[in-house]
Write a structure and sequence with these properties.
The complex is a heterodimer of chains A (about 110) and B (about 110). Chain A is an all-beta fold. In chain A, strands 2, 4, 5, 6, 9, 10 and 11 form a seven-stranded mixed sheet that branches. Chain A has a four-stranded antiparallel sheet with strand order 1-3-8-7, with no helix packed on it. Chain B contains no helices and eleven strands. In chain B, the strands form two sheets. In chain B, strands 2, 4, 5, 9, 10 and 11 form a six-stranded mixed sheet that branches. In chain B, strands 1-3-8-7-6 form a five-stranded antiparallel sheet, with no helix packed on it. The chains are: A mainly beta (about 110), B mainly beta (about 110). At the A-B interface, strand 5, strand 9 and strand 10 of A face strand 4 and strand 5 of B.
Chain lengths: ~110, ~110
């Protein structure tokens, strides 16, 4: 199983809503990532979790709140988003070993903020 | 800061011809260079990677080369097929726990029938 599963695939939310994006992997990877991708742009790193602890926060606004409940799951809680936050949100995972850093990406959640 | 530059931004080749995409990186500590293919509506998919102790790697119609001195690396696709049409991203990172992956700006490859 080399799959990273993200749900939902599509999400439309209002600026006052609270919603969560979910990501799951069963490859035994101990590093998990959230990326944001705008149209025709490369993915931009938001957060990195290593062994369920937040290790990198790329100065992301607090309206995005990540959570790693266990080694297989990664959530991104959304609150009071702005229309410019509309994007494809990608989750990825990689093995925590010095010689193996291949990252596997999920299909993404297409988020629209109205 | 760390930066990866990628050229060209768009590339159109005749089916059966070769395609070459080039990248340069700024962080001399980078030692892992993956290439991702992203089809419309999907997440990036790792297609090939190269590590800094290797100068070239090949997998069927795809090859990557790395010049550490010049901080250049390239993707070569031979005998292109329609299903090769996609956006390709180069990237660079370091071996370390939960390291950042720095992406290039992407190349939209179109294969003309």
């Amino acid at each position: 199983d080399t799959e990273v599963t993200q749900t939902p695939k599509h999400l439309v939310m209002g600026m006052t809503n609270k919603k969560s994006l979910k990501c799951e992997q069963h490859m035994g990877h101990r590093a998990m990532y959230w990326y944001k991708q705008k149209a025709k742009k490369p993915p931009e790193l938001m957060f990195v979790y290593s062994y369920e602890k937040l290790s990198i926060n790329e100065s992301v606004p607090s309206r995005f709140s990540p959570e790693c409940p266990n080694s297989s799951l990664l959530n991104l809680h959304l609150h009071a988003l702005q229309p410019e936050d509309s994007a494809l949100y990608l989750c990825a995972s990689s093995q925590e070993a010095a010689s193996r850093t291949e990252a596997f990406f999920g299909q993404g959640t297409r988020l629209t903020v109205v | 800061g760390e930066n990866v530059e990628q050229h060209p931004s768009t590339l159109s080749v005749q089916e059966g011809d070769s395609a070459v995409i080039k990248c340069t990186y700024s962080d001399s500590a980078s030692n892992y260079f993956p290439w991702y293919k992203q089809e419309l509506g999907k997440g990036p998919q790792l297609i090939i990677d190269i590590r800094s102790n290797v100068g070239e790697k090949k997998d069927q119609r795809i090859a990557v080369t790395l010049n550490k001195t010049a901080k250049h690396f390239s993707l070569h696709i031979t005998e292109t097929q329609p299903e090769d049409s996609a956006v390709y991203f180069c990237a660079a990172s370091r071996y370390s726990s939960a390291s950042k992956i720095i992406f290039g700006s992407g190349t939209r490859l179109s294969i003309r029938p």
